[in-house]
Amino acid sequence: MSPCVSRCEELTRASMIPRLTNGMFGPEGYRFEEVVDSTNRMAMTLAQEGAPHGTVVVADGQTGGRGRLGRSWASPPGVNLYFSMILKPELPLERVAMLTLLTGVALAECVTAAGLDGARLKWPNDLLHGGRKLGGILAEMTARGERARYVIVGVGLNVNGRATGFPADVAQRAVTMAEVLGRDSNRGEVLADFLHRFTGWYRCFLEEGFASVRAEWLGYARLTGGERVRVTTESGEVTGEALDLDERGCLMVRRGDGGILRVMTGEINFER
């Protein structure tokens, strides 16, 4: 028997078919691989080859998992979730970034439903618990003119095992659901629940706009108004007070001179 059988059986297509019942992510679009370099890379290739909206690529492990800003994502086999969704929303380019925030909402709801209290979202793409990273999101896009042709949304979620199993530079900043819950979770059940919640929020977003997503995101976010942050953007670094999320998904920061900076892309770190 292959070592992978008992370890990744919960994620195989056969195991997932009964759970893929919400219509948007059906069995026909479910792709499982034991090991890939990156589910985002594989999903991008499939999208370029014509894979339909709602295709989801899942791997038991990755050899070249990626995060934002060129960072690597630790992807040991058998313990966590690594998957990427192919979306074809025909959105204007300025609305594509909202999909990252929407994904964060679905992810936070998913781990909360699994019994994990205290999940927090950090703008724009991190899921935290106790200040340590529990999950991350990487969205990549191909455009046609002023609209998105397709968007690849990749998710990494630390489910089982312990963060001490990650590389040393990652272990001190990471946490797993198992460490918080005191037990392992079935990764297939967690994935199916996430896809169900994502589908609901995605449809809400397309039909009603960003307002409901924004309100839910703020409920999970570490934005209490006036919290000191250091913001790094392409144009430099700014220190100020995180205030809010605007109607476009931009982070609003009050600079030291009193002016308001709206950050569309960048990274924030909380100052202690």
Describe it:
This protein has 272 residues and is α+β, with helices and mostly antiparallel strands. The chain folds into 2 domains: 4-220, 2-Layer Sandwich (BirA Bifunctional Protein, domain 2), CATH 3.30.930; 227-270, Roll (SH3 type barrels). Helix content is 28%, strand content 31%. The protein is built from 8 helices and 12 strands. It has a 7-stranded mixed sheet, sandwiched between helices. Strands 11-10-9-8-12 form a 5-stranded antiparallel sheet, with no helix packed on it. Helix 4 crosses helix 7 and helix 4 (98-113) packs across helix 8 (211-220). The longest helix has 22 residues, at 187-208. It starts with a helix and ends with a strand. Residues 1-6 have low confidence and may be disordered.
Task: Provide a brief overview of the structure.
This protein is an alpha+beta fold. The protein contains eight helices and twelve strands. The strands form two sheets. It has a seven-stranded mixed beta sheet, sandwiched between helices.
Strand content: 25-35%
Tell me the number of strands. 12
The neighbouring-strand order within the major sheet is 1-2-3-7-6-5-4
Query: How big is the Rg?
Result: 18 Å
CATH architecture of the largest domain: 2-Layer Sandwich
Measured as a percent range, the helix fraction is 25-40%
Determine the structural class based on helices, strands and strand pairing.
alpha+beta
Biggest sheet architecture: 7 strands, mixed
Query: Can you say what the CATH homologous superfamily of the largest domain is?
Result: Bira Bifunctional Protein, Domain 2
Counted up, domains total: 2
Unreliably modeled segments: 1-6
**Global morphology:** globular
- CATH fold group of the largest domain: BirA Bifunctional Protein, domain 2
* C-alpha termini separation: 51 Å
The arrangement of helices and strands along the chain is: HHEHEEHEEEEHHHHEEEEE
CATH classification class of the largest domain: Alpha Beta
The chain-level mean pLDDT equals 89
Number of helices: 8
